Amino acid sequence: MVIASPAVRGTSPVRWLPLPVVLVAVFVTTLDFFIANVAIPAIRADLAAGPAATQLVFGGYGLAYAAGLIVSGRLGDLYGPRRVFLIGLALFTLASLAAGTAPGILALIVARVVQGSAAALLAPQVLTLIGALYPGAHRARAFGWYGTATGLAGVSGQVVGGLLMAADLGGLGWRAVFLINLPIGAVALVMARSVLPEIPRDRHGRTLDLPGAVLVAAGLVAIVLPLVQGPELGWPAWTWLLLGLAVPLLAAFVARQRALAQPLLDLRVFGEPGFALGLVAVALLFGGSAGLSFVLAIHLQDGLGLGPLAAGMVFTALNAGFFVASLRRGRPVAGALAVVAGLAALHQVLPTGSPYLVAGALGLAGAGMGMLMAPLISTVLAGVPRERSGAAAGVLGTVQETGGVLGGTLTGTVFLAAAGHGTPDWTSGARTALLVLVVFAVVVSVVVVRLKAVSSTAVEVK
């Protein structure tokens, strides 16, 4: 059964039925990017894998996800967001089964790449569906909940992973981190088939630009793969070669899109009020979140001597702050400043070695993220016309993912370099890395203030 579009049902509560279904899917796929971090040591020991291979368990997911988002946005335009969403969700669930039952490290890496590709298939469709189903003020509210779900997933990986590892469900160990997706994915798939409506689309004259798809995927791989593998391998020559190739590949992609009547990516989306500027803030916010997770995952366990579960409990403060503050929408500037204050406080309390003071600072930073995430994403997407929603969704997802990789890599590199070799000083390394994150947060604050002025001007013009 497929219900009629909720957008035409007036004030009926039925209009909101599709929202929790798509948000569960986006929560799980976003969580899966972060949750594998906690399981890496156990995977390395169980599968006798080297550092570079286990790094691909984490990086392979992000690599496939980032490379596929723009193409997936176009596929949604061509074949309908409902159909592509269902295919992506089914493939993600099957890939989770393959990851959880992988007999060796190579099989696990392949399963993670398929997981990332599946997540890329469904992610842009979520934003397209929200934009199409919820008009006017309801659209901003729905995008707000999307921002909350995405942000909460981003800060929950350490906690959820730690709990699953500690619980050791059925003696599964690290495999539970992936197999937990099976019941969630199955239920979401059944619900999605029932409540997601078909979205009318005009396919007349539309085609998939395959050369453009190859160019953008190759360009993104040339950026993300070296950043994932470079720090672990000591930055061999091929990593720099790939980074250099990314520039002409992406330049050729842009030139091709400008020349086509039916491009893979409608570049006019960057001219929408606040869109390009908002992407800067999104990239820095997700990059800061990824960097913070990496730094604290090591500092809490190797620096303070906490176990995975105890470290996860400290991270709970970040989650709690985020969730509570996300219920109070409409305060992006205050949220951005709270992130700055929380990270600065964390920089000051780390030398005390007190998990309680660390948790307090994380709670403040999490509250800032909670106030900021939803209105930021809503502002970035709210002004995009429906006919460009697929392009906007693909670009936003790509920026989130690539920003996370770039921010995590930069922060991690600074952290490890400042900690030193031999007997690392994890506290010194973490404090130095936090200075980078504070700079990120300050820039986000400036951009958010500017976005508020841009949004006000756009409203006045209308």
Question: Could you give a quick summary of the protein structure above?
Answer:
The protein is 79% helix and 0% strand.
Question: Could you explain how this protein is built, in words?
Answer:
It is a single chain. 54% of the residues are buried. The model is unreliable at 1-11 and 458-462 (pLDDT under 50). The protein starts with 17 loop residues before the first helix and ends with a helix. The chain has helices at 18-46, 51-79, 81-100, 105-133, 136-167, 176-179, 181-195, 210-233, 237-259, 275-303, 308-326, 332-349, 355-382, 389-419, 426-461. Helix 14 (389-419) runs antiparallel to helix 15 (426-461). With 462 residues, the chain is mainly α. The chain contains 15 helices and no strands.
Number of helices: 15
- What percentage of residues falls in helices of 4 or more residues? over 70%
Secondary-structure element series: HHHHHHHHHHHHHHH
Shape: globular
Distance between the termini: 39 Å
Low-confidence stretches: 1-11, 458-462
Largest sheet, in brief, is:
none
Structural class of the secondary structure composition? mainly alpha
Approximately what portion of the residues adopt beta-strand conformation? under 5%
Radius of gyration: 21 Å
* DSSP summary, beta strand count: 0
Average pLDDT confidence is: 83
